Amino acid sequence: MSSSLLKEPREIDEIVYRFLEISDFEKGFSECLQQLTEAKFTKSQFIDRYSELKKQPDTYFIVVAEDLKKKKIIACGTLFVEKKFIRNCGTCGHIEDIVVDKTYRGKNLGLRIIEQLTHIGKKLGCYKLILDCSDSNVKFYEKCLFEKKGVQMSLYLPMSKL
Amino acid sequence: MSSSLLKEPREIDEIVYRFLEISDFEKGFSECLQQLTEAKFTKSQFIDRYSELKKQPDTYFIVVAEDLKKKKIIACGTLFVEKKFIRNCGTCGHIEDIVVDKTYRGKNLGLRIIEQLTHIGKKLGCYKLILDCSDSNVKFYEKCLFEKKGVQMSLYLPMSKL
After folding, report:
1. Rounded to a whole number, what is the distance in Å from the CA of A142 to chain B's nearest CA?
2. Residue of A50, A59, A86 to mutate, interface with B, max B Cβ within 10 Å
3. Is the ipTM value over 0.90, yes or no?
4. Does residue A153 lie within any of the structural domains?
5. Where is the N-acetyltransferase domain positioned along the sequence (chains A, B) (predicted)?
6. Which of A51, A61, A87, B91 is most buried by its number of CB atoms within 10 A?
């Protein structure tokens, strides 16, 4: 993941926007994600998953915001890039797992993360970006220039690994 | 993609359910997808994309239904598997690009494709499967055991590859 994919300015008010790094485990990446949903993992699990994602560098783009003074991850979001056959063998970017630390809300950090992911998607040549959200977040994403498209449906599975 | 991931029976009424193969270009894979959206591509583009997806064998699972008499692809669907940090570094399956040839509708082929993709997702240990659809398709996916979860939002981009 080249940092040239990121949108300037990457540093505002002592907050830097950059790609996830392996040292972010110590900077509270897990604690940030836990404000979205269950996201506890050990350092070893983090390193294994991080290494797996690194092997698919054109698929996973995880942007974090760090408070440089506190050396703390205060927001993050993922662009997960799908290679399709439709749309002239086009690519579609899926925006996933957007979260802003609760003590930093109201400062447009979520908007900045989405701007970064959108910028990356454009640079990669994605023909569209999609995301799923709750009704209560529709207005936020409209501010990020997204439009309502359809219905998200889900099926929770018993985990039965091979 | 091991065919052992597929759900039995894979062959019913001279229709076989299996993973996409490189010979499916000649069997009308593009023509099938075109009934969903713009999906024209040359044989060379198909082979290039197919080869790219093969390099990510734990990410892309494309199931097709073939009419064995006609040697024709009559339905297809994709499971696109995302490795996350949340949910104990869990995996989420995205169901994409489901289409059934219009002359074969009403025969439960769409249901069979979703059953195959769900079965694969279970075998892979996905904690959930998600998909986006129009309001008019909600009832179909409810029959496939999916539930309404949220709102899908999209942003169409000008394609500006690096």
Report:
1. 9
2. A86
3. yes
4. no
5. 15-162
6. A61
Cα–Cα distance measured from residue A14 to residue A11, given in angstroms and rounded to the nearest whole number: 6
At B43, which CATH number? 3.40.630.30
Identify the helix (H) or strand (E) that includes residue B122. helix B109-124
Distance CA B136, CA B117 (A): 21
Domain of B14, in residue numbers: 3-143
Q: Which residue in chain B is spatially nearest to A84 when comparing CA positions?
A: B49
Is A161 within a domain?
no
Residue B9 Cα, gap to closest chain A Cα (Å): 19
Cα–Cα dist B7/B4, whole Å: 8
A46 contacts B85 by C-beta, under 8 angstroms: yes
Please give the sequence-ordered ranges of beta strands (E in DSSP) within A28-142, or none if there are none: 60-67, 72-83, 91-100, 128-133
Query: CA torsion, points B47, B49, B55, B59, in degrees to nearest 10?
Result: -130
Give me the mean pLDDT over the A32-37 stretch. Answer: 97
Percent share of chain A, pLDDT over 70? 94
- pLDDT value of residue A12: 66
Backbone phi and psi for residue B54, each to the nearest 5 degrees, phi listed first? -60, -30
Q: Structural domain tally of chain B?
A: 1
Q: How big is the CA angle at B86 (ends A25 and A68), to the nearest 5 degrees?
A: 35
Q: Does residue A93 lie in a domain region?
A: yes
